[in-house]
Recover the amino acids of this structure.
């Protein structure tokens, strides 16, 4: 096991990339701590799978180095890196039985038969497939096959990291939850570095200690779920995490006030005078309808989602959502929206600006 | 729930039935007619029952032709199938060279059978042929017109040249349908090249391989034109396969009765073998799934 370092890494699928847009992964430096449980979150096509394949050695990066501990493994194959990877769609060896499938990675490495037997039994118990061990893998359902894939990923104990590429896409919701819990437990037990690619934020937030959000070939933020929620470093993070995502309004910011539509809003920190495209971002959770002060809002509809209500509205032509706690009154005269001052983030050209003390 | 049974769509196949009747059923029935009658021309028929069939079944000549035929098909299959798989595995997967290989591979399949025969007939000639003359020049005794073994080698080489492409192209199509993730998973699992072939490629190719083997079996079992052009069944009877013998009997000797009996049995044998083969392969497939 080792810390995985990506140094000046970038990747393009073109032989001679001309500009930034040709790069599937823009230049990045990134460190995956040994034993961490990471979720790699981002929209489809943002480079998550490419990054994963670079770490596992299936793809060689066009530039930069990959280090495992102090060892440079950029040119090493997957075998030398000793990494397990689970793919989005089930990959099973059809003509083998479930047992043979699970034993395959161990057998290829010439492990002791008694050890293989014990290991396969343990993994079969984890994925709940003891009863079907002697069946051919071919006739099984998609989620049973995916469980085998997961099992094959976890069967080796000595791996440097286990990479999951949206492994639960084909599994039904109930099983999804259970498997995720088991993965987490496995992580606690063995302490493997785990990197879990997904575009489902619930999955990411429940699985990982650290969530890495990617956008357009870049890592835009890495942090705890709480950090991602409270202080998104990029407007994409704000928009992507949370349901509904962060509200963004064009504004001018100077000192500790933001001005939207001629109305001054107090900010929790001092920002100086900001240049570029300035936006303020506020979570729907920290917005509140009011009859007296705040920005004028036009309410389009109110959705009751059980625990709370989502008010979908518009402020100065931009969409603004408000989450009202259960029981909160929504009166006909409440045509303004108020923000909790300390919860407003300021963005300049999509990147968060760190405020100073007042 | 009760489903309404309405099978009147059946009538839609009537036109096909009529066409098939004229193109296949009626000619076949005349063959059946010949096979149970004796005739001396002028449309006089004398009932002969199963006489011709008995004669053919116990005929020494037929036995040896059948033996040659089975040997030929067996050799062809055992060369073309592994070779086709090998070629398919080594073809480029995409880009210019993939298309180039595909076109190159299809070329032999597009050449008419008798032209293939002629090409090899000239190619192998000792006096002017590239192959025959070169072999003679370097001192190899080779003459397909008077050495049975040479004739066999030439015919087999010709058939391999002509048809391996078909097996290769079918396998190639099978290989192309394997998602990249399988190869990636195999690399992660540290599978050897042999394991990748044995556990990923071969199972995924089994469907097309079944078709390839079936096609190659039927075609090689019915082979006529190429050996006929190349050797005419000689030297002696050494390359007289079933269909060559059949034609000799039917139009050479004009023994219509025995020839008709022979062709019916020939047809039934191919049908039977293909059916058995197909059934065995598909039930094996099903048994594995369970």
């Amino acid at each position: 096991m080792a810390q995985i370092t990506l140094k000046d890494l970038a990747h393009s699928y073109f032989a001679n990339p001309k500009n930034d847009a040709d790069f599937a992964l823009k230049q990045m430096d990134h460190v995956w701590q040994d034993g961490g449980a990471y979720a790699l979150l981002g929209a489809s096509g943002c480079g998550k799978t490419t990054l994963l394949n670079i770490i596992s050695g299936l793809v060689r990066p066009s530039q930069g180095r990959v280090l495992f501990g102090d060892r440079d493994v950029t040119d090493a194959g997957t075998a030398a890196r000793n990494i397990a990877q689970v793919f989005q769609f089930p990959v099973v060896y059809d003509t083998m039985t479930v047992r043979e499938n699970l034993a395959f990675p161990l057998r290829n490495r010439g492990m002791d038969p008694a050890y293989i037997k014990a290991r396969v039994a343990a993994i079969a118990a984890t994925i709940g497939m003891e009863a079907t061990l002697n069946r051919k893998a071919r006739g099984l359902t998609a989620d049973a096959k995916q469980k085998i894939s997961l099992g094959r990923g976890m069967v080796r104990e000595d791996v440097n990291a286990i990479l999951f590429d949206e492994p639960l896409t084909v599994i039904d919701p109930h099983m999804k939850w259970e498997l995720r819990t088991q993965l987490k437990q496995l992580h606690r037990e063995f302490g493997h570095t785990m990197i879990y690619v997904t575009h489902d934020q619930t999955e990411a937030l429940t699985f990982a200690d650290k969530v890495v959000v990617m956008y357009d070939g870049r890592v835009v933020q890495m942090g705890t779920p709480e950090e991602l929620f409270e202080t998104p470093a990029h407007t994409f993070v704000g928009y992507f995490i949370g349901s509904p995502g962060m509200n963004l309004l064009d504004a001018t910011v100077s000192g500790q006030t933001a001005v939207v539509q001629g109305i001054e809003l107090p900010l929790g920190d001092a920002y100086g005078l900001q240049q570029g495209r300035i936006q303020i971002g506020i979570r729907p959770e920290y917005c509140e309808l009011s009859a007296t002060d705040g920005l004028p809002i036009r309410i389009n509809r109110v959705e009751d989602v059980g625990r709370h209500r989502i008010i979908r509205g518009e402020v100065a032509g931009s969409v603004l959502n408000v989450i009202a706690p259960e029981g909160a009154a929504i009166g006909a005269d409440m045509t303004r929206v108020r923000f909790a001052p300390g919860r407003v983030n300021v963005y300049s050209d999509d990147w968060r600006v760190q405020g100073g003390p007042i | 729930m009760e489903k309404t049974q309405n099978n009147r769509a059946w009538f839609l196949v009537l036109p096909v039935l009529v066409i098939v009747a004229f193109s296949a059923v009626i000619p076949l029935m005349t063959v059946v007619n010949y096979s149970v009658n004796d005739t001396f021309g002028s449309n006089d028929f004398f009932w002969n029952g199963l006489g011709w069939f008995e004669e053919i079944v116990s005929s020494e000549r037929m036995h040896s032709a059948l033996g040659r035929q089975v040997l030929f098909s067996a050799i062809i299959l055992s060369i073309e199938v592994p070779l086709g798989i090998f070629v398919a595995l080594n073809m480029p997967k995409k880009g210019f060279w993939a298309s180039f290989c595909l076109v190159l591979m299809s070329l032999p399949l597009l050449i008419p059978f008798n032209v293939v025969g002629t090409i090899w007939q000239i190619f192998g000639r000792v006096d002017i042929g590239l192959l025959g003359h070169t072999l003679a020049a370097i001192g190899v005794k080779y003459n397909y017109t008077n050495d049975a073994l040479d004739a066999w080698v030439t015919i087999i080489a010709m058939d391999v040249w002509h048809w391996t492409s078909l097996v290769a192209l079918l396998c190639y199509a099978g290989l192309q349908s394997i998602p990249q993730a399988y190869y990636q998973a195999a690399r992660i699992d540290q599978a050897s090249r042999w394991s990748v072939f044995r556990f990923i490629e071969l199972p995924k190719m089994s469907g097309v391989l079944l078709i390839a083997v079936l096609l190659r079996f039927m075609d090689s079992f019915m082979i006529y034109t190429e050996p006929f052009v190349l050797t005419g069944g000689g030297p002696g009877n050494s390359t007289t396969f079933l269909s060559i013998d059949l034609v000799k009997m039917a139009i050479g000797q004009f023994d219509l009765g025995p020839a008709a009996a022979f062709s019916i049995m020939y047809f039934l044998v191919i049908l039977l073998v293909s059916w058995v083969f197909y059934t065995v392969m598909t039930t094996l497939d099903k048994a594995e799934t369970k």
